[in-house]
Design a protein that fits this description.
Distance between the termini: 69 Å
Shape: globular
CATH class: Mainly Alpha
Number of helices: 16
Number of domains: 1
Order of helices and strands: HHHEHHHHHHHEHEEEEHHHHH
Radius of gyration: 25 Å
Helix content: 40-55%
């Protein structure tokens, strides 16, 4: 009887286990389930995902603040005032390690953005295109490709040697082009710098083809200025290509791309697509007037969507909150050729004997939009590329005058102003340093030319051959990716 009871009990347990067979194969708690394609099941859900891609790019750890901060403070124009290792102090002192917060956080946010783009592109190929149609799908995928390109570009600027060192043969970063939705072995060796740049250009070319010329308010022919500032359109991809090619010192390509959106004579404007153009008064662009035609791309914020604690660009550069940095009195603001009558000087204020910048004037909750790219940059990219290929070039001088002249009508450059092409190039580089102060271009300008980082305060000059010239790879990546190599 006892033996019969045990057999029955065993059968009952087997039956119970069979009924709960799914418990033997639980859903991974670290996976991103596609719920049988539900995220791509409706047009509204797909559009929400597109906007979500911009949200990861807009993170305060990436283009929503920190990327621009690191770009500026790694140069020579700012002095640190807090010695706070969480707020770019180690970037300023050129002492970052693989476990520094900026090294870890920029890497992880960039790859989070890249992976989200990859997952979206994969999902559109498998499910989404059938839902929204080929034309809308092409636009959305183009937006994803643009955002992925921008994230990879950010990685190259800090973790890799300049392209010019050996035509991009140096180690780059892992090139991940398919989405990872569950925990697994994702060891992947870096490709070369040149290969990453090639992927960036490929993505931007694809974006140029698929992006709309202009965004209109739904159901109308009225231009939606906010969308054209905060989402990529065709001119955005072209403009970003001028930045990328300038970083590669491929000046002929800079000219080819810029000519698509810069008219041949002043006033310089985009002749196709969104009517990008220089504003007559630059100062007004930084007074909550973000949806003007000079902004090619900006990261928007409002009281409900803020950059996050210690990410706000105003707290770094505007003397607000913790006042992390103030302007180096021996930096670009000391340059005598930047005249006191130049209207850009009005964007500098003095508080308690220290100079700060007023491009980002809004205090808590810090709702200033963060510029990623302005039309002025495309104008100066073209000016530099023409000077480097054609010497003392009339159009190059006209482009330079377009930027200087709207701020300082007393300075007008002519061919006789320069004794050599190098003089013209140096004038353009100085204009960039003035024009984009606090907007996150200074380090890239030094790096692409393989120039030393000038000394600042008690921080000595850093030469391109010094180990601290670029950041080390993320310590977390080194821990979990056995093929990272450094």
């Amino acid at each position: 009887m006892k033996k019969k009871f045990l057999i029955i009990l065993g059968i009952a347990l087997l039956g119970s286990t069979a009924c709960q067979k799914s418990k033997l194969y639980p859903v991974s708690q670290t996976s991103i389930s596609n719920q049988d394609g539900q995220p791509f099941s409706t047009s509204a859900r797909i559009q929400s995902q597109v906007l979500g891609l911009y949200a990861t790019m807009r993170s305060g750890q990436l283009y929503g603040g920190r990327y621009e901060v690191y770009e500026d403070v790694k140069g020579e124009n700012w002095i640190n005032s807090t010695s706070n290792s969480v707020t770019a102090y180690q970037t300023w002192t050129e002492t970052v390690s693989s476990t520094s917060s900026e090294v870890l956080n920029l890497w992880s946010q960039a790859y989070l953005t890249i992976n989200n783009c990859n997952l979206f592109i994969d999902g559109m190929a498998s499910t989404g295109t059938a839902v929204v149609g080929a034309a809308t799908s092409a636009q959305y995928v183009a937006e994803a490709k643009f955002i992925r390109a921008a994230a990879y570009y950010a990685l190259l600027q800090f973790y890799c040697q300049p392209y010019v060192v050996n035509n991009g043969a140096s180690p780059g970063v892992p090139l991940r082009l398919t989405g990872n939705s569950a925990y697994g072995n994702y060891d992947l060796a870096p490709v070369t710098v040149a290969q990453v740049y090639a992927q960036i250009i490929s993505d931007l070319n694809g974006a140029e083809t698929g992006l709309p010329l202009v965004y209109y308010t739904t159901g109308t022919t009225t231009i939606d200025a906010a969308s054209n500032t905060t989402r990529a359109h065709r001119n955005t991809a072209i403009a970003f290509k001028t930045r990328v090619y300038l970083s590669m010192q491929q000046y002929a390509n800079v000219i080819t791309e810029a000519n698509k959106i810069v008219s041949s004579a002043a006033p310089f404007t985009a002749t196709t697509g969104y009517p990008n153009a220089l504003q007559a008064n630059e100062v007004n662009m930084f007074k909550a007037n973000y949806t003007n035609t000079e902004y090619i791309l900006a990261m928007p914020f409002n009281a409900n969507e803020t950059p996050g604690t210690q990410n706000q660009i105003a707290t770094y550069f505007s003397g607000l909150g913790s006042s992390e940095f103030y302007l180096n009195p021996n930096g670009i603001i000391a340059d005598a050729t930047w005249k006191s009558t130049d209207t850009r000087r009005s964007l500098i204020t003095v508080k308690s004997g220290r100079s700060y910048q007023l491009k980002f004037p809004t205090s808590s909750p810090y709702t200033d939009w963060v510029p990623v790219m302005r039309y002025a940059e495309v104008v100066l990219n073209l000016a530099e590329a023409r000077a480097r290929t054609s010497g003392i070039d009339a159009q190059s001088i006209a482009l330079l005058n377009a930027i200087r002249g709207r701020n300082d009508a007393t300075t007008v450059y002519t061919a006789s102003s320069f004794s050599s092409a190098n003089d013209l190039i140096n004038a353009i580089l100085k204009e960039r340093n003035i024009e984009f102060l606090g907007e996150g271009l200074r380090w890239s300008d030094l790096m692409r030319l393989n120039l030393p980082i000038p000394a600042k305060s008690n921080v000595p000059q850093v030469n391109p051959t010094d180990a601290s010239y670029i950041w080390p790879m993320s310590g977390n990546e080194q821990l979990y990716n056995k093929l990272i190599g450094r």
